[in-house]
Specification:
341 residues, alpha+beta, 4-stranded antiparallel beta sheet, 16 strands, globular
């Protein structure tokens, strides 16, 4: 049982009460809540540009990674008055939802004190939810495949984007897979990004049926890499870069260079792309924010790529399907228990 401890701290003129600092949240390695708060405090200069103005879903582990967890979409009512929120209409709840916005260091520390181990953000800014800022691919390996196979698929996707004049960045999921982000930061719709992502996932499955699958059916995924194109959706969130993950040790969703991806593939060693909190702090000190282009770089989806994945008819079909669902906001707030592994 963790000793009841609390301390008041002043951070950027805000006063916070931090509690249960000795509580162990990662039992296998003895990583405490104090260490979680310390990590988020130190990584804040690199992390905050990627959370600022993005509606945030909290994934909280009040009893550590081995206990029950829950997602929290509505920002807690007991939040300090200086924590910013974004009002988003929820068709599922038929009411407004108020999402937390991680705008500054005091807010980030407050979230960490709630045992918010994982930060999941929208791909949109709160002020313009229908417009994604990025095009995202979540590459998820089905055992016995590992992140090594994800590297192979990621490099092939990178090459396709290069052919169409687009740069992209890679990061580990912090769990098992690899994620690709194509910076856009220009006028675009989710219908367009979803058509491109789905079209490429289907094309890769046709060309590499032993390696790639685009449907989320468990029986199809054994030994293959799921290209999860469905993350390109106004109603979904993706784990934020530099977020901790609730694994046996405090691993982090970490930006990686394409050289590191190539090295992992050549070596066939999944451990080369696993980074914990201390390693990530050291990487940022040495390398800076490798994910900076995701926020800063402006790129338009080229017509050539749109045409290669279905063009205007596919976009119109996607829009009609979306409107047919009747969804008009983020999904209703849900709690969730950890599924048996």
């Amino acid at each position: 049982m963790a000793k009841e401890t609390s301390v008041e701290v002043a951070i950027e003129s805000r006063t916070l009460k931090l509690t249960n600092l000795d509580k162990v949240l990662y039992p296998d390695v003895g990583f405490t809540k104090a260490q979680v708060i310390d990590y988020y405090t130190r990584i804040a200069p690199a992390l905050l540009p990627h959370t600022r103005d993005h509606p945030l879903t909290l994934k909280r582990f009040p009893n550590g990674v081995d206990g029950e967890f829950f997602y929290e979409k509505n920002c807690p009512k007991h939040r300090p008055p200086w924590v910013d929120t974004a009002k988003v209409w929820s068709g599922g709840n038929n009411r407004d939802m108020f999402y937390c916005l991680a705008q500054d260091l005091p807010t980030l520390v407050w979230l960490a004190n709630l045992a918010t181990l994982e930060l999941h953000t929208s791909l949109s800014l709160a002020g313009n939810l229908p417009q994604p800022r990025t095009l995202v691919f979540d590459l998820d390996p089905g055992p016995p495949a590992t992140i090594v196979e994800c590297c192979r698929v990621g490099l092939m996707l990178r090459d396709v984007f290069r052919e169409h004049g687009l740069d992209c960045c890679a990061k580990t999921s912090g769990s098992k897979g690899l994620q690709l982000y194509v910076p856009l930061n220009t006028k675009v719709t989710y219908d367009e990004t979803k058509v491109v992502s789905k079209g490429l996932a289907q094309l890769f499955e046709e060309q590499h049926p032993d390696l790639v699958v685009h449907k989320q059916l468990k029986e199809l995924r054994t030994g293959r890499v799921l290209i999860d194109w469905s993350q390109n959706d106004q109603y979904k969130t993706t784990v934020n870069v530099y977020s901790l993950r609730a694994r046996s040790r405090p691993t982090v969703s970490t930006p990686v260079s394409w050289e590191e991806v190539e090295t992992c593939l050549k070596a066939g060693d999944p451990s080369l792309l696993v980074f914990d909190s201390d390693q990530v702090l050291d990487r940022v000190a040495r390398l800076g924010d490798l994910f900076g282009p995701v926020v800063k770089q402006k790129q338009k989806l080229p017509r050539s790529l749109m045409e290669a994945t279905g063009g205007k008819p596919a976009v119109e079909k996607m829009a009609n399907r979306r409107h047919g669902t009747g969804r008009r906001g983020y999904p209703p707030q849900k709690g969730q228990r950890r599924a048996p592994e």
